[in-house]
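Ticket #4471: structure output looks truncated?

Reporter: J.K.
Steps to reproduce: submitted the chain below (81 residues) through the standard prediction queue, then opened the result file.
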Amino acid sequence: MTTQSLIQNQALAQDLQRATTKIKYLKIALAVMTGIIASLITYLIVGNLDATPLLSVGWSASTFIVTTGFVFTVQEKIARP
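Returned output as attached by the reporter:
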């Protein structure tokens, strides 16, 4: 290998590392946003069923935790090796 190709190889390795890091952060952001959306939908549905505000918040929080965990689990299962 020449010096030029070695430098290109190192640059590509750094780009790959940065892309991998960005993908990890995007996976976290996707899971949290999905959890927030599910939480808000649950809050609206339970609130419209004449539940107390505390009960609505409790169901909403539970839905956030379960949905976020589910998204992380699915992401882990379909991850590329």
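Triage note (M.O.): checked the attachment and the full token line is present. Residues 12 and 18 are 10 Å apart (CA to CA).
Status: closed, working as intended.
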